[in-house]
Amino acid sequence: MDTTLVRFSWAFPFRKSLTKIQKNSSLSFTPFPKFKKESSNLRYFCKMGNRESFDETTFEAERLRLDSQARDSMAEIAQNESGSETDPKAWKWRIRKRVWDLMEAENIAQNPRPVHHRIPNFVGASSASERLGGLEEFRAAGCVKVNPDSPQKQVRFLTLSGGKKLLTPQPRLRTGFFSILESRILPPGAINEACTSAGAAKYGRPIGLDEKIKVDLIVIGSVAVDPKTGARLGKGEGFAELEYGMLRYMGAIDDKTMIVTSGIYWDKLSPEKLGQIRILRELKSKIEQMTGKMLPCGPSEKLPPTARRKR
């Protein structure tokens, strides 16, 4: 399966570079039933006379409860697998932890925090989104699939405010499948709300596997990305890959569908900046050892003094 990928850099300036990557995967899953906007034990829409009213408070409370439950479960899995000498997934958890620990230590993360076991909401996410919005590929897209995490909220806003269709999955696919949102059918002034998880459930039109839809661009969050191959690490649950597989099954995407994600541009990283961040040095060394090639380095720069943090 050939996939076109654009790296979406949080730490360094964005550039229009497309990298061809080869990715072989075989996904199997059980098709979801038609989305009824309900979970196994909770209904978010209640009847009020002849109309339905969305219970945002109940939805958000349940979402936060399930998020906390999922993160606790992932933390337990990570602890068990990362310390193993034989588990083939151990190295993935070690890299994730390094990235999450670095972002917390360097205070380059925004709420929700801590960033562990999340697609981290990095400082500069809005600026990165604006750069994405300037791409011809984004401007030409009629339908954009964006994950529901916090750092991609601005991308969801740009999609809707630009008159495009927004395809967003329900968080962890636990209350349904995908929802489609369009600004033309939103109430006046509701775009900001529609960019949230609760807003997507409230205003979105749920779809099933039989929906006929063409997705032009996929924006996917990451914890870490290999700058050479484009291989990514998410937060460890694999839902982005399942969503991709389901969209392929539906015929909504194909080999030519562009994917935008996060990565590091080594040729923009100065020796001084690299010297400040140990984990980046370790990652650079690891990649060079694995590939047998030296990664590029950016031009030298004079860095401002490091701010002292209150303890």
Task: Explain what this protein looks like in three dimensions.
The protein has 311 residues and is of the alpha/beta class. It has one domain: Rossmann fold, CATH 3.40.50. It has 10 helices and 12 strands. The protein has helices at 56-82, 90-105, 125-133, 136-140, 153-161, 191-194, 197-203, 239-250, 271-276, 278-291; strands at residues 2-9, 18-22, 45-48, 51-54, 143-146, 165-169, 178-182, 205-207, 217-219, 224-225, 232-233, 258-263. It has an 8-stranded mixed beta sheet, with helices on one face. It has a two-stranded antiparallel ribbon with strand order 3-4. A two-stranded antiparallel sheet has the order 10-11. Strand 6 and strand 7 (178-182) form a beta hairpin. Helix 1 crosses helix 2 (90-105) and helix 3 (125-133) packs parallel to helix 5 (153-161). The longest helix is centred in the N-terminal third of the chain and has 27 residues, at 56-82. The chain starts with a strand and ends in a 20-residue tail after the last helix. 29% of the residues are buried. Mean pLDDT is 77; it is low at 1-43, 47-51 and 306-311.
